[in-house]
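pinned: reference chain
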Amino acid sequence: MPKTREQKEIQIKQLTDKLRKHPNAVLAEFTGVTMEDLSDFRSKAREEAVTFQVVKNTLITKAAKDAGIKDLDVSKVARQLAITTGDADEVTLSKLVYNFAKDNKDKVKIYLGILESKVVPSDMIIQLAQLPLEKSCWLR
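pinned: its structure tokens
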């Protein structure tokens, strides 16, 4: 059943608040992923204080605009996107989505990122995800 205009407005407000509170996010295409894999990903995300939400692309665009994020227009993207955001730092957030994409080849594709409320290409998110963890740096 389609959402009413009122439900969409509420969802836009909630997403706008998230984007204002958490200036880092990763948008990715999640096509053909099994429910079991999504549940595993959500569990890992919760452990890192990260939320994963599938939202209509037009609602993401409106929420980003309301949150003051310029140059984010995914309303014309043909595939459904999911947004991952939360209390985790940008490296942890990037690693979480990147590892999920790596484990689900051809089903998950990082589309773009938002770092400090600025839109960045997927290449930058992938580079962040490939940085070594601080703990492993200390051990060297």
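why pinned: The longest strand covers residues 108-115. The two ends are 55 Å apart (CA to CA).
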